[in-house]
Design a protein that fits this description.
Layout lengths: L45 H10 L12 H16 L2 E2 L24 E2 L22 H5 L17 E3 L5 E3 H9 L42 H7 L32 H6 L5 E6 L10 E11 L27 E8 L7 H16 L5 E7 L3 E9 L2 H12 L9 H14 L6 E8 L24 H5 L7 E6 L5 H11 L3 E4 L5 H12 L2 E12 L5 E6 L5 E3 L5 E10 L3 E10 L6 E11 L5 E5 L3 E3 L12 H24 L3 H17 L1 H4 L3 H15 L4 H21 L21 H12 L20
Parallel strand pairs: 1-2, 7-8, 7-10, 10-11, 11-12
Antiparallel strand pairs: 3-4, 5-6, 6-17, 8-9, 13-16, 13-18, 14-17, 15-16, 18-19, 18-20
């Protein structure tokens, strides 16, 4: 077996010229005998062999470092390498790469080179080649760096390069860390590398390395990921099958009521009322008189951990907020391969590390079909490890089946045996559902209701909101917006892949700060001649009595410090006395599950003999501007969908003119000025049909979602925007967003700043 002539190889002709200096020596032959002596370091081929043996994890056993037990372990690894039928070639001079030669080579039945680029075979019968019986499929199942198995679903992340060669993620990322940006197999130069941005992009150096390779220090996600045990240490494997019922959720963490929690529960929501004018003449009656009802949720407690990293020492959920049951539905179709999937994993890692031990998480991954990665489980230290392992093992491939994914996510919530008081679904996709959408009977627009589970459509209280995130220029913004709107959630448009984590951070910053649940606002007319005529509540369900004397609005959950504005219009009769217009009250459940009922003083206006000159209430005028802008955006979008982009731009331009003439804008109101900037941005995104299709539609739908729910959404690269996107942010969202950005440092002067909560003159 130690012969230099491989089986079946012809002997060289006696008159053949001597081999060239770069002739590849015979392949390394491993002897089965345990007592076979190791090659001496002076052996002519020992340098190349030793280097390759060490890179393959085989070790090197030359004179002076003989260890029988270690040699036996190395021999087992050597046998795995032999199973691949690999040969080792000495690098040729010049480029340091192997050179094929006819003088020396592998046995014809197993000639597979390691680390060599495809080359034209040299003349001669001994040129390197792959026979018909070669193990192509076998080599694809092995990592070319460590020679270990690369089967998906076994707790190890895999990386598929642009050249289609696949490696263990930790193997190739370690290789990249040392500056190697070429494929170890074919030597192709990579434009995108593991855990890094595009090498050819113009991203600033401080921002490059968004996935950790070039960051100055490793973040907590990477640190926690390093703690995740591998399957060899006996960690429970991910579910390869799904039960019929998803009632296998982990029980809730037992919490004890404390005096501090009881004291915090005394914080209540605030209600303020603002009539359009403080007085109208006695002899005047007025139709459509505006009254603004302003709500504000209690502040977050000082020790609330929104934006704070959850570590191993955490023994209970942060006080001052309701625990959450969260199901994330993530797209792993073929279009998510490469950098997109790596960024998604990092964003999910950020979410996982900020959930507390009382919060529970389940993940649904979908492509052509959907599967539950793990049951709804508490994010204890062990739970976070399991979640990170599941996320890290994902690979991309297949189509896009959003409907099946949402059906399973809803089933996780509906079948759970235990229930946290707050639950939500986060959906991210970069494509279009190719399995369930169909046009209506007239062949017009698609019926997006087929994507939403029927139980969510039937729930008028909208207790399970779906917060949808559209990623990139190819996602179906209409379908994602429709899904979010039908469930009571928001739609965000992630235009730049670099803000994916920021978008998730802003969303969970709100979800992890819920302090008000199931709020309902009630209004009742006081004076017998006063009658309600309209309610402007956006997407919040409202109901008015037939006689127009009372109405109600279901607000639902509120994040800490979150605000809501409801604009009413009433008809006021003539009167010689001060007129009481409305009684306003609200009820909701607080963190202790206690029902809180609030009432405010009646809304009254004075009735002087003659008219008094006064300005309109800036609070009322500001809200009118916001509603007018939202209506104009909807009208402009409808025109754009008809193909009338010029008409759409004109609609927005007319709205900007009216806003500029309003009292609030002339008074320098920041919200009104931000509305103008938002409308201008939308006009620019309608410059051409191509631009509107690529980003304009999604940007407008995200804006409509934000205005209809009065809740912050991500729009484009919104962390660097000066538009209204920041006007709905709460302090908890800002804190979480800043924490996310601190993990992705930017050069001085280019750090995106999270904006403060929306301006108020109240």
């Amino acid at each position: 077996r130690g012969s230099n002539q491989a089986k079946g190889q012809k002997k060289p002709h006696p008159n053949a010229p001597p081999p060239a200096p770069n002739v590849v020596p015979p392949p390394l032959q491993f002897h089965h005998s345990r007592n076979a002596p190791a090659p001496h370091p002076s052996h002519p081929h020992s340098g190349g062999i030793r280097a390759r043996a060490e890179r393959a994890g085989l070790g090197w056993f030359g004179p002076g470092n003989w260890d029988r037990g270690a040699m036996e372990s190395a021999w087992r690894k050597a046998k795995r390498a032999l199973a691949l039928r690999l040969c080792v070639l000495v690098p040729a001079e010049g480029d340091g790469r192997p050179a094929a030669s006819g003088a020396g080579g592998c046995r014809g039945e197993a000639a597979v080179t390691v680390g060599s680029a495809p080359e034209e075979p040299a003349a001669g019968g001994g040129a390197l080649r792959r026979s018909k019986s070669g193990s192509r499929s076998s080599s694809k199942r092995k990592c070319a760096i460590c020679f270990d198995s690369m089967r998906s679903g076994h707790g190890q992340a895999l990386f598929t390069a642009e050249c289609s060669h696949k490696f263990h993620f930790h193997c190739i990322s370690s290789n990249v860390k040392h500056g190697n940006h070429v494929c170890p197999v074919c030597r192709a130069k990579w434009k995108e590398i593991p855990l890094n941005r595009s090498l050819s992009s113009n991203i600033p150096d401080g921002r490059r390395g968004i996935n950790g390779v070039q960051l100055p220090q490793q973040d907590a996600y990477v640190a926690l990921l390093h703690q995740v045990p591998n399957r060899q240490r006996g960690v429970r494997r991910l579910h390869t099958f799904e039960p019929t019922d998803f009632n296998d959720d982990e029980s809730l963490q037992q919490t004890e009521a404390t005096d501090s929690l009881n004291s915090r529960s005394k914080k209540t929501a605030e209600i303020s009322t603002y009539p359009e004018f403080s007085s109208i003449p006695q002899s005047s009656s007025q139709d459509g008189f505006s009254v603004l009802i302003h709500l504000k949720a209690p502040s977050a407690s000082s020790d609330q951990a929104t934006g704070r990293l959850v570590n191993e020492s955490s023994v209970r959920s942060p006080s001052g907020r309701a625990p959450v049951d969260l199901v994330t539905v993530i797209d792993i179709s073929g279009s998510m391969a490469g950098t997109k999937l790596a960024l998604l994993k990092r964003a999910m890692g950020f979410v996982i590390q900020h959930l507390g031990p009382s919060d529970r998480l389940s993940v649904i991954a979908f492509s052509s079909s959907a599967r539950r990665l793990f049951h709804l489980q508490r994010m204890s230290h062990y739970g976070r490890q399991q979640a990170l392992q599941a996320i890290n093992s994902l690979g991309a491939g297949g189509g896009t089946n959003i409907a099946e994914a949402l059906k399973k996510a809803t089933k996780v919530i509906e079948d759970r045996s235990y229930k946290n008081s707050v639950c939500s679904i986060i959906l991210l996709s970069d494509g279009q559902d190719t399995y369930n959408l169909s046009s209506n009977a007239r062949g017009g627009s698609k019926d997006y209701s087929t994507l939403v589970p029927q139980s969510i459509l039937d729930d008028t209280r909208r207790m399970l909101p779906i917060h949808a995130f559209g990623f990139g220029a190819d996602h179906d913004s209409d379908s994602l917006h429709s899904v979010a709107e039908a469930s009571g959630g928001t739609f965000s448009f992630i235009e730049d892949e670099g803000v994916m984590q920021d978008a998730f951070a802003q969303c969970i910053g709100g979800l992890l700060s819920v302090v008000v649940q199931e709020m309902r606002l009630n209004m009742e007319c006081v004076h017998p001649g006063v009658q309600l005529c309209s309610i402007k509540s956006g997407s919040y369900p409202s109901m008015m009595a037939r006689d127009g004397r009372s109405c109600s609005v279901d607000i639902g959950h509120l994040y800490a410090d979150e605000e809501r504005d409801i604009l009413l219009s009433v008809n006021i009769p003539q009167s010689r006395e001060q007129t009481s217009l409305l009684k306003v009250a609200c009820s909701y459940r607080d963190l202790t599950n206690e029902t809180i009922k609030l009432k405010v003083d009646e809304v009254k206006i004075n009735r002087p003999m003659s008219a008094i000159s006064e300005n309109v209430s800036i609070e009322v005028d500001r809200e009118r501007n916001r509603i007018q802008a939202a209506d104009s955006i909807e009208s402009a979008r409808a025109a754009a969908e008809r193909g009338a982009l010029a008409e759409a731009v004109t609609i927005l331009e007319d709205c900007r003119r009216r806003l500029s003439e309003s009292f609030a804008s002339r008074s320098g109101d920041r919200l009104s000025l931000a509305l103008d900037a938002e409308l201008r941005e939308m006009q620019e995104r309608m410059a051409s049909r191509q631009l509107y299709e690529a980003s304009g539609r999604a940007y407008m739908l995200s804006g409509l979602s934000s205005h209809s729910w009065q809740r912050a959404t991500t729009r484009g690269d919104s962390t660097e925007s000066s538009t209204i996107v920041h006007s709905y942010q709460t302090p908890s969202m800002v804190q979480m967003l800043q924490h996310s950005q601190s993990h992705i440092p930017s050069p001085p002067g280019q750090q995106p700043q999270a904006r403060p909560p929306r301006p108020s003159a109240r």
